[in-house]
Design brief:
The chain has eight helices and 25 strands. With 487 residues, the protein is an alpha+beta fold. The chain is rod-shaped, with a radius of gyration of 47 Å.
Length: 487
């Protein structure tokens, strides 16, 4: 007995579900003014046609809306029609012509009240705007409302058919003010929402250059959505003038670098779509190599040198021989000059190359700078600076050694700065070089001691080689010296 009761309950529940679904299907759908809908013509009367729009929904549309240009009815029962809801009060009222341009003054008023779009033809430019013909009536469109783009030419709009929104409807429709821009901005906002969802980091997009500033260019990606192509992202080489790369109106392909949804900012890149020149640096350059470079700019710490587009090196201030003037090295280089440079170091990870200006390229090619700095060598360098613990001597680009005070060869109470003026040449002996080659210990004292030993040796050799004169010879010379001179 239990099973039939259970089955009976299941059937009842299914009947209830079906009934509720059927009831819901019979409920009239809700429509809003301005909404475009589709329906089926179910009856045609003398003045209106009845359209089934689903469920219990039924709407009317004026017969004149279904006539062709010759006044012949172009619709019949069973046809599907697409129309716009122009009124919901007292039943649904549809219009097909509003989508193609209002045909009557009453429809214009309905369009104004419902905020519906109407079609119109731009007749001519007038003071402050344009004269627009809508359904045989004259309307005025202010110049600021004809487009979203400013400063367009009148000829760009005259004779064109656009869709407008009625902003003002006065004197029974005799005074109409319309706007095309309002509809364009609405469309842009709708399209922008969909477009922004497709703009993600890494995406490659096409756009148009909207404007160029000194710091970069704004790229219109569509629907009024703009991204910034910063000047630093335009090319692998340094770009000083963005207009040399892009100009307003240019079509460009860019890569999305970053998207900030909160600030509605999009960062774009152009160089990312080109090969990175640093990827082949290890194949092109090597330490000790001589190459040509162009000085791009000067900084307090050195000169930047472009070896090729996208590859920039630094000639640090320490690679220039000291002159006694902290800024004296700038006399050797000027922005824009081309010269020979020797590569001192390459750091691929940090994308850094250290170079030094080479004034005598021939000599540098025969003997790479710094290769003769080994213990025991005697070199000539230039005094770079003084410290309380010694004197720094410039030996070669990027190679500076230290003469400790006890190795200067001067008394403790002496003025070391006066003995070794900055920029003066000094001969030194290399005492020690650490494995990295960066810490070099020098001695001036060893050089002085060696010179003193050389002088003593030369004097000794000179004295031993001189002939020994006899006593008689000396006496003869003495008598000759004492003899009175003849007059």
């Amino acid at each position: 007995m239990d099973r039939p009761h259970g089955k009976e309950r299941n059937v009842t529940e299914k009947d209830d579900d079906f009934a509720s679904l059927f009831e819901a299907s019979l409920q009239a759908k809700r429509f809003d003014e301005g909404q475009t809908i589709e329906g089926t013509i179910i009856a045609i009367g003398a003045e209106v046609a009845f359209v089934d729009v689903g469920g219990k929904g039924e709407a009317t549309i004026d017969i004149e809306e279904l006539l062709d240009d010759e006044g012949v009815l172009e619709a019949q029962v069973g046809d599907r029609v697409e129309a716009m809801v122009v009124s919901t009060s007292g039943g649904l009222k549809l219009s097909r012509k509003l989508a193609r341009g209002a045909a009557t003054q009453k429809q214009l008023e309905n369009a104004y009240r419902a905020g519906l779009p109407v079609e119109g033809k731009v007749e001519r430019a007038v003071k402050g705007g344009y004269e627009v013909r809508i359904a045989g009536q004259r309307a005025f469109c202010p110049i600021s409302q004809i487009d979203t783009v400013r400063n367009t030419e009148a000829k760009d709009h005259e004779g064109r058919v656009y869709t407008f929104r009625v902003l003002e409807f006065k004197e029974g429709g005799k005074n109409l003010v319309v706007s095309r821009r309002a509809l364009l901005e609405e469309e842009q906002r709708e399209e922008a929402g969909a477009l922004r969802r497709s703009i993600v980091a890494g995406a490659v997009l096409s756009g148009r250059v909207a404007s160029v500033r000194e710091y970069g260019a704004f790229i219109d990606l569509g629907a009024g959505v703009q991204g910034l192509l910063h000047v630093s992202e335009m090319g692998w080489s340094r770009v000083s003038d963005p207009t040399q790369i892009v100009r307003p109106g240019d079509e460009v392909t860019v890569k999305v670098l970053r998207v900030d949804d909160d600030k509605q900012k999009i960062a774009l890149g152009l160089k990312q779509l080109q090969a990175d020149p640093w990827s082949k640096v290890d194949e092109t350059y090597a330490t000790g190599q001589l190459c040509s470079g162009r000085v791009t700019r000067l900084a307090d710490f050195g000169a930047f040198v472009e070896l090729q587009p996208g590859i920039e090196a630094l000639a640090h201030v320490s690679t220039f021989p000291p002159t006694g003037d902290p800024a004296g090295w700038k006399a050797k280089v000027k922005a824009g000059m081309t010269g020979s440079f020797q590569i001192l170091s390459i750091d691929l990870e940090k994308k850094r190359i250290g170079v030094a200006l080479v004034e005598d390229a021939g000599a540098a090619a025969e003997r790479p700078a710094g290769n003769d700095i080994v213990p025991g060598a005697r070199l000539v360098g230039k005094v770079e600076r003084h410290e309380k613990f010694g004197v720094f001597v410039f030996l070669a680009p990027g190679r500076t050694g230290l003469i400790p005070l006890k190795e200067t060869g001067v008394a403790r109470e002496a003025d070391v700065a006066r003995t070794f003026p900055v920029g003066a040449e000094v001969e030194v002996a290399v005492l020690e070089v650490d494995p990295s080659g960066r810490r070099i210990r020098l001695s001036r004292k060893d050089v002085l001691d060696a010179k003193e030993k050389d002088e003593v040796r030369e004097y000794t050799e000179r004295k031993s080689d001189a002939p020994v004169e006899s006593f008689g010879s000396l006496a003869d010379k003495l008598r000759g010296a004492m003899r009175p001179k003849e007059k």
